[in-house]
Automatic annotation (TrEMBL):
Annotated InterPro entries: FAD-oxidoreductase/Apoptosis, FAD/NAD-bd_sf, FAD/NAD-binding_dom, FAD/NAD-linked_Rdtase_dimer_sf, Reductase_C
Signal peptide region: none
GO molecular function, one term: oxidoreductase activity, acting on NAD(P)H
Keywords: FAD, Flavoprotein, Oxidoreductase
Residues annotated as domain Reductase C-terminal: 314-395
Domain (FAD/NAD(P)-binding): residue spans on this chain: 5-292
Pfam families in alphabetical order: Pyr_redox_2, Reductase_C
Protein name (database record): Rhodocoxin reductase
Enzyme class, spelled out: oxidoreductase
Oxidoreductase found in the keyword field: yes
Record EC number: 1.18.1.-
GO cellular component: cytoplasm
Protein origin, superkingdom: Bacteria
Gene (UniProt): thcD_1
């Protein structure tokens, strides 16, 4: 039997995890991991956190360096853009070469959404998606006194916190009435607003603004004249290669629950994939956990090894000294029980007596328990849960 080849387009977190998991699961064939960035695969979360505020370097967040790739027999091609896909011939083309594949894994991630109109300000503008962006942000912070962050989602708030920790005056502009409104429940948004206000960040939510030469004009006519701008208005999936090859796309590469595209020999994983849910809706997850889970799931399918048990979705964010964590579903619960207050609080979303979702601010230990309950479908005693004097572990139903 000829040696099989898995070609992975995109050497970010999902691609690297998939390549390593293939070897771990006993794949004997050739693995080619091709990424357009000049770096070995690295994890992005610290780009808006300690890579900017200090304490971590790119080497610290590298997942698969050249030596490790070689030892695993993974052919790692950096600075290599995959520019063409011929599905009939099962070939991909790069700038310099073409490669045949038996399985193709698309792991092309996303790019920062452009901020329309910002050029009018004439100010330096940075978004945070790649290692170079973090370097640029660090340099701007070092030479500036103030910044306006456009976008009050996770990334915007993290970047704002990093700038504030470096001593800058910080304004955050968010179109929605509250920060992280797309995914966080109102109580969590409120806690985040309080955290940022307490640390001296001016958060402008729900108000329009316009770019003007030299800065930003708020709807109430207040003029902001920051030294530079950060664009943090979300990402767009890199699905152009897939779309050009006739694969289904819908703000991402459409996959089923097992990350299979409309072509049986092609998978899509991580941020570039959009999964069709049982109700027909489509969900794109942009998280560290999803990059890992999808990379591993595809390696299991290619090697014919059992898939790991599904785990509840979870996500974290670090802002100032606060750790924010969310898991499960935070929408549509019958009952929401809040424990704690201020900078240490946790919410339990219950339906039918079972936990369907939870979030925590600086309650990392209790959050571990909540994730376990979510995975096990544990029934909880709402009255004990609501009584903050009861230890959390005593709150399961008899
Ligand atoms: C600043 C920042 C902070 C984050 N913080 C958190 C956090 O706190 N918690 C959390 O859960 N998640 C966080 N995330 C999200 C998490 O990092 C992403 O979900 C994860 O990186 C997705 O991995 P990926 O491999 O799908 O995409 P990526 O890591 O983006 O990798 C995709 C790679 O493919 C390459 N590529 C694209 N097109 C091509 C092509 N045609 N040919 C070759 N290569 C190509 C890209 O250059 C890139 O290197 C953060 C993300 C960012 C940007």
């Amino acid at each position: 039997m000829s040696r099989k080849t898995v070609f992975i387009a995109g050497a970010g977190q999902a691609g690297a995890v998939c390549a390593m998991a293939l070897r771990d699961k006993g794949f004997q064939g050739e693995i080619i991991l091709a990424g357009e960035e000049p770096h070995a695969p690295y994890e992005r979360p610290e780009l808006s956190k300690k890579l900017v505020s200090g304490g971590r370097s790119l080497a610290d967040v590298t997942i698969l360096d050249a030596a490790k790739a070689e030892s695993l027999g993974i052919r790692l091609l950096t600075g290599c853009t995959v520019s063409g896909l011929d599905r009939d011939a099962r070939k991909v083309g790069t700038d310099a070469d073409s490669f045949s594949y038996d399985w193709l894994v698309l792991a092309t991630g996303g790019r920062a959404r452009a901020l329309p109109g910002a050029a009018l300000t004439g100010l330096p503008l940075v978004s945070v998606r790649k290692a170079e962006d973090a370097e640029q942000l660090k340099a701007l912070i070092a030479s500036s006194r103030s910044v306006a962050v456009v976008g009050g989602g996770w990334l915007g708030l993290e970047a704002a916190a990093s700038c504030r920790q470096a001593g800058l005056e910080v304004d955050v502009l968010e179109m929605a009435p509250r920060p992280c409104a797309r995914v966080a429940p109102p109580a969590l948004s409120e806690a985040l607003s309080a955290l940022h206000a307490a640390n001296g960040i001016r958060l402008h939510c729900g108000a329009g603004f316009s770019f003007v030469p030299g800065g930003i004009r708020l709807a109430d006519d207040t003029a902001l004249t920051p030294d530079f701008l950060i664009a943090a208005i979300g990402m767009e999936a890199n699905d152009g290669l897939a779309a050009a090859a006739g694969l289904a796309t819908d703000r991402g590469i459409v996959v089923d629950s097992q990350f299979r595209t409309s072509d049986p020999s092609i998978f899509a994983i991580g941020d570039c994939a959009v999964a069709t849910q049982s109700d027909g809706s489509r969900l794109r997850l942009e998280s560290w956990q999803n990059a890992n889970v999808s990379g591993l799931a595809v390696a299991c399918q290619i090697t014919g090894t059992p898939l790991p048990a599904p785990e509840p979705l979870w996500f974290w964010s670090d802002q100032f000294d606060a750790k924010v964590q969310m898991a499960g579903s935070l929408e549509g619960a019958e009952e929401v029980i809040l424990r704690g207050s201020g900078t240490e609080q946790m919410a339990f979303h219950l339906t039918g007596g079972r936990l369907i979702g939870a979030w925590a601010l600086n309650c990392a230990r209790d959050f571990v328990l909540a994730r376990r309950w979510l995975a096990q479908g544990t029934r909880l005693a709402a009255d004990r849960l609501a009584d903050g004097t009861q230890p959390l572990k005593a709150c399961t139903a008899a």
